[in-house]
Amino acid sequence: MGQGIDGIVIDPREASSMEECVESEFVRTLVAQAGLVIFGQKPAAVFGFTPRAWKRGDARAKRSLSARLFSIYARETERYGVSLVWLANRRDAGTMLLAWRPTEVETVLADKATRALLAEVGLPVDSAHGLMSALVARLRSYYAGRSDFPHELGLVLGYPVEDVRGFMADGGRGAKVVGRWRCYGDVDSAERRFSELSRAERACKRLYSEGVPMRELLRMGAA
Hints:
By secondary structure, this protein is mainly alpha-helical. It has helices at residues 18-38, 59-78, 102-109, 112-120, 128-143, 161-170, 187-209, 214-222, and strands spanning 44-49, 83-90, 94-100, 177-178, 182-183. It has a three-stranded antiparallel beta sheet with strand order 1-3-2, with helices on both faces. Strands 4-5 form a two-stranded antiparallel ribbon.
């Protein structure tokens, strides 16, 4: 287990064991859902993981295996500047995870307008780890049904501060354009960024499909 950090794990449909199948799905999910964080193109990503391809074995065994895989990959990705954090287990979306790069979040915090909005909503702005710890607490509270979704999260997902502020004000109704997020500000800039991120995402998936292992993708993102 953990072989997918150094090589391309097989197609989950060709797996000969539950361990092999679930690891394949897990690594493919990381590439597909957190590839931009791995590639150093986005500060953070929130995503779900549900192993589906292995039809045998009970759900409890799959959850236990997923937890072991998460522990292994969290330890390995940390070496290349990507933190993986467990958020919640949900019936509808599986295990919810957060991937984030401290260096990229520090860049977010360097923006004065971003820091001002974070402070307005009661989040710490002294360090990336302090901010992300507070956001993790808010996300866990949301997934537990104790609070509303923290839309300020958009700031560390790489959304422009004016767009996050606009969405928080009207829930997306006044957006000028909808892409990877709802844009309230500079439409041309947002659409260029949508295209840039799409190209980077396709590149990450292509490299992995061509045989570049996760560890090398992480190295590339950290460079």
